[in-house]
Design brief:
It is a single chain. It is built from 5 helices and 5 strands. The chain is an alpha/beta fold. Among the domains are: 25 residues, no CATH class; 35 residues, no CATH class. Helix 3 links the parallel strand 3 and strand 4.
Length: 134
């Protein structure tokens, strides 16, 4: 699941990630993410979220809300261009992977693969699963 309030970013991430073989759903907010995951029903394997969303929503709250809804420790990646020390500290303290924009494609690809593999390993699932739902 990719959550970003900028349509162009969502579309770009969708193209990039589907090109890497992932099944991708995108949303501009937490509420929209819930709707996009409802039909057909799916629990995301990973959440990639912009740190600052519209109407005061943050990537932290979005990831936590999705985790709560699905009752799972879904890995999360926060993307930010923010440089405010308090926000960066809050993001780092969250335990989610924090990547600074612009993110090199190779770094993003490696981060996603590692997080998904780590989550599957923790769940004792075999690594020969179909493409992850992001």
């Amino acid at each position: 699941m990719v959550i970003d309030d900028e349509l162009a970013i969502r579309e770009g991430m969708h193209l990039l990630l589907t090109g890497w073989g992932y099944e991708v759903r995108t949303a501009g907010s937490t509420a929209e993410a819930f709707a996009r995951l409802a039909h057909p029903a799916a629990t995301p394997d990973l959440i990639v979220c912009d740190y600052r969303l519209r109407e005061g929503e943050t990537g932290l709250s979005a990831i936590r809300s999705l985790r709560a809804r699905y009752g799972a420790l879904i890995p999360g990646v926060l993307l930010t261009g923010d440089t405010a020390p308090d926000r960066l500290r809050e993001a780092r303290d969250s335990g989610f992977l924090l990547l600074h924009k612009p993110v090199a494609h190779g770094r993003l690809r490696a981060a996603l693969a590692n997080l998904i593999a780590g989550a599957r390993e923790a769940d004792s699932e075999p690594t020969s699963q179909p493409a992850a739902v992001i």
